[in-house]
Write a structure and sequence with these properties.
2 domains, 7 helices, mainly alpha, single chain
Length: 203
């Protein structure tokens, strides 16, 4: 309830004059809300961009003849997170937050780990014969690096081409931890680059 500016009396709603002193009541001006302020941001669908980025990084990071072309297969993972962030930006032309880029990157790393594990199984079967001729050299390498105990045994089992529930789970969780981290970094970096480009265009 508003009050009269002259006598302080309470004014009824939509009053034109004060009932006590007769002073005209000035209507309260409301500022118009611009369409941009009133617009509702569209909800983001993280699944489709994350699937696309996950397929990209999962395939390129797990196929030996492709990942060997780059000394660090994590570059493919960074690119996969970046692709997911770029696809997510298309849903909201005004831009996405760093949190959105990080989240879609983590999701793409998770989906990529699933793809990579599925691709890794036949690759391991094919490479099993090669491991048999190189097993002694690999064990000597681990010994020189000081890798001993259960970690050494696990790495030898994974490299040997053994396919079991334990080795598949070990491979999957290794991919999840590493790829989700690097894909998240790729998503954040992509958002930073896109925001910088958008600022330069509007400025």
């Amino acid at each position: 309830m508003t009050q009269c500016n002259e006598c302080g009396a309470n004014l009824p709603d939509h009053a034109s004059f004060c009932p006590q002193c007769g002073t005209p009541v000035q209507p309260v001006e409301t500022q118009p809300v611009s369409p941009s302020q009133n617009a509702v941001q569209p909800a983001l669908d993280f699944i489709q961009p994350a699937l696309a980025g996950g397929m990209f990084l999962g395939l390129l990071s797990s196929l030996p003849f492709i990942s060997a072309a780059n000394c660090l297969c994590c570059m493919w993972v960074l690119l996969g997170g970046g692709i997911a962030a770029m696809l997510l930006t298309r849903q909201r032309p005004s831009g996405i937050t760093y949190g959105d880029g990080a989240f879609v990157g983590v999701l793409s790393g998770l989906f990529g780990a699933i793809v990579g594990t599925v691709v890794h199984i036949p690759v391991q079967i094919i490479s099993a014969r090669f491991f048999q001729s190189q097993q002694q050299q690999l064990e000597d390498l681990f010994r020189q690096l000081g890798i001993e105990g259960p970690m050494r045994d696990w790495m030898i089992r994974v490299a040997s081409g053994e396919i079991s529930a334990a080795t598949v789970l070990f491979t999957f969780f290794s991919y999840v931890l590493m790829w989700s981290l690097f894909a998240m970094i790729g998503g954040i970096l992509t958002v930073a680059v896109l925001n910088k480009q958008r600022t330069a265009q509007t400025g």
